[in-house]
Amino acid sequence: MDASLLQWLKQNKGRQFASPRGIIFGRKPQDIILEDIREDIQEIHISFSKRKTLALPLHFWMFDRALDYLRFYREKAFPIGAAIRPPYMKDSIEGEIWREPRPHKTPYRVAPFILDILVLSGFAEYRYVKNLDTDRKVQGVQIGLGAPRLDPPGAPPLPPPSPVPPKTDFLDKYKNTIEEWTEQHKEQIIESRLNYTWQHKSRFDCEQTRNQVSREIIESRIRNGGALDLETLDKVMKWGFNRKYPDRDPSKALEVTKKAFDYLDNGDLKQATLTLLGVKNVGISRVSKIIGLYDQENLCIYDSRVGHALRTMRHEDKRIVLISPSPVRGGDTLVSYEMWAEQYEQMIWVAEVMRDYLNRKGCTYRLADVEMALFMVGK
After folding, report:
1. Do residues 272 and 345 touch, judged by C-beta distance below 8 A?
2. What are the tens digits of pLDDT across the range 142-175?
């Protein structure tokens, strides 16, 4: 499907539209409601304003056939030719959608709804054309990039489209690259997860210690109304760096972690990260250990070894994930707190794509398992 059209569909999901055929042709078709865009099965689901059930799905390939037909004959208008089954009007859009070979065996009427969406999104324009068999004037359509959206007379203007969520925008751009990289490194990732170790300890001991720190974080939040006390922060820092937490004020520790975890509980990982980055001498590696160990199912650690492991994951010759600074392996410098917070969020999105891909291949991974594998790859 055309990328701009798919973007328009996503931005307008859940909205109700008056059919532009009502204005151009003087008819009274029902309003359509754009219920869902299913990229996984390449279907658009719509319903009608006077009904409570979904219409039959509109497949991506139907839009492709209609739009390709209109674009190829840019100077020509075609009849809509709406019909439930063959035979279809000559040169009609309905006939073009259902030409052989058909991806779907049993035809049903789709052209009016496909074309309503193309007109509303500015890809086409309705106009009258002649039926080549009867020479009568019939409803038709022509390509019309940039055509204005048509609303019923007196209807209030539609609100501007909602901005694309950052995660959606990120995955639209990078998901294929992430999956391709994961496939190329699949065997190494799986082997590295099986050999997870640190400081010459066994895999079992490393996992046990890590899980114990995770439990300490959860229990501290329960004790302290959602916050972490200084004792728990020290345990995290000792596990990760063999040092104490930099700020030694117990009340400040409770205050800043309460604020950060409130953001996290509300789904705002970026602000949670920024809050902890505001503590002196607490960088992204320390922050991600505090946050990532709290929920190993859905979060993970972002340190220099993880960043180093992902250094070859590139899109248009640019790294997707930065490498946090390290005395041992260097890293990216002159990076603002804001950018590190964005990078941690995006690293989580990368790990989610990797986890889902590996799960489809038979690996029952959490996000922490992906990170532990990357930790070993990046050593």
Report:
1. no
2. 987 554 344 444 545 545 555 668 898 899 899 9
Alpha-carbon separation of residue 374 from 79, 179, 209, 280 (angstroms): 57, 15, 19, 28
Task: Give per-residue pLDDT as tens, 100-114.
Answer: 888 887 888 999 999
Question: Would you say 150 and 128 are in contact if contact means Cβ atoms under 8 Å apart?
Answer: no
pLDDT for 135 equals 79
Nearest residue to 348 (alpha-carbon basis) of 367, 335, 331, 334? 367
Judge whether residue 362 has pLDDT over 90: yes
Question: Cα 22 to chain center, whole Å?
Answer: 35
**SS3 state at 139:** strand
Tell me the CA distances in angstroms from 247 to 51, 67, 233, 294, 337, one per residue in order. Answer: 61, 61, 10, 20, 18
- Distance separating alpha carbons of residues 376 and 379, to the nearest angstrom: 5
Find the mean pLDDT for residues 122-139: 86
Measured in degrees and rounded to the nearest 5, phi and psi for residue 141 equal -150, 155
Q: What's the confidence (pLDDT) of residue 367?
A: 97
On the question of a cis peptide bond just before residue 57, with omega within 30 degrees of 0, the verdict is no
Angle CA 99–114–118, to nearest 5 = 120
Q: Do 372 and 190 form a contact (C-beta atoms < 8 A)?
A: no
Reading the block at residue 314, the tokens are 């590139």
- The DSSP bridge pattern shows strands 78-79 and 318-319 to be unpaired
Handedness of CA 52, 53, 54, 55 (dihedral sign): negative
Cα(27)–Cα(214) distance, integer angstroms: 64
pLDDT higher than threshold 70 for residue 233: yes
Do residues 125 and 119 touch, judged by C-beta distance below 8 A?
A: yes
Asked if residue 346 has pLDDT above 80, the reply is: yes
| CA-based end-to-end distance of the chain | 42
Tokens of residue 131, six digits:
């039926």
Q: What span, in angstroms and rounded, lies between the C-alpha atoms of 261 and 276?
A: 10
Question: How far is C-alpha 210 from the geometric centre of its chain's CA atoms?
Answer: 30
Are the C-beta atoms of 261 and 275 separated by less than 8 Å? no
CA separation for the pair 295, 359 (Å, rounded): 18
Is-above-0.70 flag for pTM? Answer: no
